[in-house]
């Protein structure tokens, strides 16, 4: 599997991806997207040891911890007094993020069944 494969799969689910390599052979994948309500959202997951499974584990950990109601409340806390409509939109946005992250995991895991290691070749789109 190449970095391009991960980026292609993520793009299919609406994520923009940037990749940062570290000196120890790990890669940080920054996944970004706009929510249906127009807010920018991002999360980072690490792929270490060349094993795609480590990236999947990181994304699954993110998704498992994502509670739409709690995150919506935290988002809106900074804006002052949100309206009920804003709260419900934020909850829907976070639920959409969670769904798209699960779809990303599902498609990446299918590919990882065939190619469980990341090839250490120059990636197509890295920082």
Q: What features would you describe in this structure?
A:
With 127 residues, the chain is an alpha+beta fold. The protein has one domain. It contains 4 helices and 3 strands. The chain has helices at residues 3-12, 52-65, 68-77, 84-114; strands spanning 16-21, 27-34, 40-47. A 3-stranded antiparallel beta sheet has the order 1-2-3, with helices on one face. A hairpin with a 5-residue loop joins β2 and β3 (40-47). α2 (52-65) packs antiparallel against α4 and α3 (68-77) packs across α4. The longest helix has 31 residues, at 84-114. The mean pLDDT is 85.
How far is the N terminus from the C terminus? 19 Å
Question: Which strand order spans the largest sheet, edge to edge or round the barrel?
Answer: 1-2-3
Roughly how many Å is the radius of gyration? 16 Å
Q: SSE order, as H and E? A: HEEEHHH
Residues in β-strands, percent: 15-25%
Number of domains: 1
Mean pLDDT: 85
**Low-confidence runs (pLDDT<50, min 5 residues)?**
none
The shape is elongated
Query: How many helical elements?
Result: 4
Largest sheet: 3 strands, antiparallel
Q: Percentage of helical residues?
A: 40-55%
Structural class: alpha+beta
Strand count: 3
Notable features of this structure?
4 helices; 3 strands; alpha+beta; three-stranded antiparallel β-sheet; 127 residues; elongated
What is the topological layout?
Layout: H1 3-12, E1 16-21, E2 27-34, E3 40-47, H2 52-65, H3 68-77, H4 84-114
Antiparallel strand pairs: 1-2, 2-3
